[in-house]
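QA checklist item 7 of 12: single-chain prediction sanity check.
[x] sequence parsed
[x] length recorded as 239
[x] structure emitted
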Amino acid sequence: MKNIALIIAGGVGARMHQDIPKQFINVKDKPVIMYTLEAFQKHPNIDAIEVVCLDGWHDILRAYSKQFEITKLENIVSGGETGLQSIRNGLNDIAQRYTSNDDIVLIHDAIRPMVSQDIISDNIRVCREYGNAITVIPCTAVMLKTTDSVTSNDQIPRDNLKITQTPQTFFLSDILKAHKEAIKKGINDSIASCSLYVELGKKLYLSIGSEKNIKLTTSEDMEIFSALLETARPDWMRK
């Protein structure tokens, strides 16, 4: 009964306008991905870490992992042409080492470095109790509906809306079956594991997220992350 973190670090980060992938940008003398890996490294219930990484960056990632003592890192595999294919590559590699029906996998974006110990713990709890766990936060904004991207005269009630984050956690055997089913049905463009489950008609169970669990997509996000590091730091970030 193992809990395996699958970290997706296959993006090139074009919207950052940087020469290196955003997950390898240094913030406070540490690459973004190392903050992410440290969160899972320090969680007592995480048994192993797998990373899906861009080609050409595997050795760099291994060197950083040695420097920052990420001892739970078991393997690094290359990404696919899409995020869904990258996840599939990681899952298939994990399945070669873990075969128990009780093993679960926490799929997480490398560029969400502020994931907390509480978020990881609740993902494990919810998944083991209900079968899967999708990290979410409430929708607090007014949601407008538009058909032309310019005007709107309608809104979507926000009370029943949730904003998804990662981790998204599943029993390994279940998510592997879901991917096989998706291939048979020609579902190849799901943007996340949760949307894949929805397209397959499967029920999802919600787990607690946090506004601080931001995804670093733009340079402004990087500024927010840097500012958050300057505030009171959670226990898992302290040396």
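[x] summary fact logged: The two ends are 30 Å apart (CA to CA).
[ ] second reviewer sign-off
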